[in-house]
Write a structure and sequence with these properties.
heterodimer, A: about 190 residues, Immunoglobulin-like, 5-stranded antiparallel sheet, 3-stranded antiparallel sheet, 3 helices, extended, B: about 550 residues, immunoglobulin/albumin-binding domain-like, 2 domains, 21 helices, 9 strands
């Protein structure tokens, strides 16, 4: 028999507002964006407030510092670039425009003191953004003959149907013709 | 020998919707419509092809949530009740239209279809149509593969690797019990691939999976044959890429087949058209007009004006479109085989199964015609399954696919944007807690074990990619938000009760009655992957 009643099945529980922990994680959205999400406890904030009180902590600004590395690397010596994003005091998530595909990123959440110094509090996991174009790395054993470059040309254009090609003034037969540099062809529209 | 192969793949999935507490729920109606309009028509098509000795191959992924619902006796009985209501309405419609030559034969058409569905579902398959799919598998025509347990979106739940393992192992276990052998292939939900996830699938015995086109074409190094030959991940699992041409021919908004003006219109339905008191017993109990399934008009054009549906004309169009699709694949493969000389190219064409029949009424018949034509009308191309193609033993190029999905814009934004990003902090916390509990209680029994298993179910159900997808689509959002909140809330109390040693077995039983998916689940699938390895190593060393 099925218990038909779902009354109070959640027994008064609701979605937690917070979990009482220090947490910062990064998720990958696409080649150009990552998503950061965090929670920081009052205890932790008090610790930093006491430590940096005389450096103007109460006037500090919450900030994310974004680190970019060559794909798969993440030691600070190999940092390619960093940039900062100022946050409001109530923010607990952010979609970050990282812009450059095929790179490894992590972020630090902290405060910028009035003097400009960044005090990091938490560091996230790292993520690697995917490519948004064809790789220029070729396996010698699987080198494409010139003729075979046409496969990529056709795939790049043939996500458009012949009808749509004609609408755009492209002769579908032209695809079988001479193929130029296809390395930057993007199939996604 | 054919010049190349076509690999048709259907992905059948619905979220787990089961609401015994309501006499009627719109969400269960999704499931019933799927059976009536897609799954049973496909079964009719495959049965007919086998009866007529047509040589065909088709690959279908049946998601574990769908498999669970199809094998649930409560939902089976509810579906029979649903069909009986449809048959009652069909009788009324045949009577109502008896003097209307334009619509009476359409009412009779639906009546015949529902009668046949009733016979197939209740009498022939005893309420469990999964047996039909197993028969087609055992006949060597259909390759059934699985998908993640609750369609969890791997790239966004994979911070805890145990979540991916649990989604995959639960799915493979259910599939093996249902279809008698483990799946060779795995449909990664939404084709959402994140490099490294395939290693877990490989360890579980999976031989191949699929990505969207750019998962292959943007792979590193650049694959020599693009999406027209599988590649091999460094972990030695094969990957097949979606062909953009055949995708567009079916999906294109402008000139895709389903939009043909002679095909049946999806939106025009007697649930909206007829007198309220007449349709009232067959619409929402709260008197909200909804689709009944009786649709008498064709698409006609881009305006609201709709002409009556003419099944014979639509059938001719279906044959024409099947012929067109085959012709284009022949031409495509002829062209590709001129460039790929050392192996036959393969064109992989995956679609959502529910497109066929539910959205595109003539879709199942299109598949029927297409498979008959490919077998009978030419010799250049053949249908094949991915594992058969791999069995041809052509050496595959080793590449790492590119992170990707088949969602809008090709990556993960549909499932991670401002409408749904708030869900992930809860999902990751719950996954951490589940791992913590599994590590803490490696040998639980009795009430504790039941509570831990239910926590695993609640987490899996919360991870369904359907909830963020619906939030993004902006339809039925309240349902998706409530489902997500319910599963996380229940999980959170289970965690508190388990870790606080205050389990209420009665409440846990009520939860199981409500969310009863995966009865054989073992919460230990969430044990920390690293810890699991160490334990086994230690025990092996003792031996």
């Amino acid at each position: 028999m099925h218990d038909l009643s779902r009354e109070n099945l959640n027994s008064g529980y609701e979605l937690p507002l917070y979990y009482g922990e220090n947490k910062l994680f990064l998720l990958l959205r696409d080649p150009h964006f990552v998503f950061a999400c965090w929670e920081i406890t009052g205890e932790t904030l008090n610790y930093y407030r006491n430590k940096f009180y005389h450096f103007g902590w109460d006037g500090s600004i919450p900030m994310l510092r974004v680190y970019r590395f060559p794909k798969g690397l993440e030691s600070l010596e190999q940092t390619e670039a960093t940039f900062d994003i100022e946050l409001n005091h109530y923010a607990d998530k952010r979609h970050i425009h990282t812009d450059v595909p095929d790179k490894t990123y992590y972020v630090e959440l902290g405060r910028k003191l009035p003097g400009g110094e960044f005090i990091p509090i938490m560091r996230s996991n790292s993520v690697t953004t995917p490519r948004d174009s064809v790789s220029d790395i070729i396996d010698e054993e699987w080198r494409l003959l010139d003729l075979q470059q046409r496969i990529y040309r056709r795939m790049a254009l043939y996500h458009l149907s012949s009808y749509e090609l004609l609408k755009r003034g492209v002769d579908p037969e032209e695809i079988t013709g001479k193929c130029q540099d296809d390395y930057n062809i993007k199939i996604i529209t | 020998m054919p010049k190349g192969y076509v690999c048709l793949v259907l992905h059948a999935h619905l979220p787990y919707v089961r609401h015994p507490e309501h006499e009627f729920s719109l969400e269960e109606k999704w499931f019933f419509e799927g059976i009536t309009e897609t799954y049973l028509p496909l079964i009719k098509v495959f049965s007919g092809l086998i009866r007529d000795d047509i040589d065909f191959r088709l690959t279908i992924s049946l998601s574990p949530t769908l498999v669970s619902m199809l094998s649930d006796e409560f939902l089976q009985q509810r579906y029979i009740n649903h069909l009986e209501k449809l048959l009652e309405l069909a009788d009324k419609e045949v009577h109502r239209t008896q003097n209307d030559l334009t619509f009476n034969h359409l009412a009779r058409m639906y009546q015949d279809q529902f009668l046949e569905s009733y016979y197939l579902f209740k009498e022939k398959y005893g309420g469990n149509i999964l047996t039909a799919f197993k028969e087609f598998q055992d006949a060597g025509k259909l390759e059934i593969i699985t998908c993640a347990a609750t369609h969890g979106y791997f790239p966004l739940i994979g911070l805890q690797r145990e979540s991916i393992y649990a989604q995959a192992v639960t799915a493979i276990d259910l599939h093996t019990k249902t279809f008698g052998k483990p799946p060779k292939g795995f449909w990664i939900p939404e084709c959402a691939y994140n490099p490294g996830d395939e290693e877990i699938l490989k360890d579980l015995g999976i031989k191949y999976f699929f990505t969207d086109t750019h998962g292959i074409t943007y792979a590193t190094p650049k694959p020599k044959y693009g999406a027209y030959n599988p590649i091999l991940c460094p972990s030695e699992i094969a990957v097949f890429g979606r062909d953009p041409e055949s995708t567009k021919q079916v999906w294109s908004r402008d000139e895709g087949y389903p939009g043909d003006f002679y095909y049946r219109d999806f939106y025009r339905d007697i649930g909206f058209d007829l007198d309220f008191d007449y349709v009232k017993p067959y619409i929402h109990p709260d008197s909200i007009r909804i689709h009944t399934g009786f649709k008498y008009h064709r698409i006609t054009g881009t305006t609201d004006h709709k002409e009556p549906y003419e099944p014979e004309v639509a059938m001719e169009k279906t044959a024409e479109h099947a012929g067109n699709f085959m012709f284009n694949r022949e031409k495509q493969i002829e062209w590709l085989s001129g460039l790929i000389e050392d192996r036959p190219p393969i064109v992989v064409s995956p679609y959502d199964a529910e497109l066929f029949g539910h959205w595109w009424y003539e879709g199942p018949r299109w598949i029927d015609y297409l498979l008959r034509k490919i077998d009978c009308d030419q010799d250049n191309i053949k249908t094949i399954t991915p594992s058969e193609y791999l069995g041809l033993n052509h050496r595959l190029q080793v590449c790492t696919p590119c992170g990707s999905s088949w969602g809008n814009k090709g990556y993960h934004e549909v499932w991670l944007n401002r409408t749904n990003d708030w869900t992930y902090r809860h999902l990751h916390k719950a996954a951490e807690r589940m791992r913590e509990m599994a590590d803490c209680y490696p040998r639980a029994e009795g009430d504790l074990r039941n509570a831990l298993n239910q926590a695993a179910r609640e987490l899996l159900l919360a991870q369904a990619s359907d909830w963020p997808f619906i939030m993004n689509a902006d339809t039925m959002v309240t349902y998706a938000v409530n489902r997500f909140n319910d599963h996380i809330s229940r999980f959170t109390r289970l965690y508190d009760d388990i870790m606080g040693n205050k389990i209420d077995p009665t409440w846990v039983n009520r939860l199981y009655a409500a969310d009863n998916i995966f009865p054989d689940i073992d919460y230990r699938i969430y044990r920390s992957l690293q810890d699991t390895a160490l334990v086994e190593k230690t025990e092996l060393e003792k031996v």
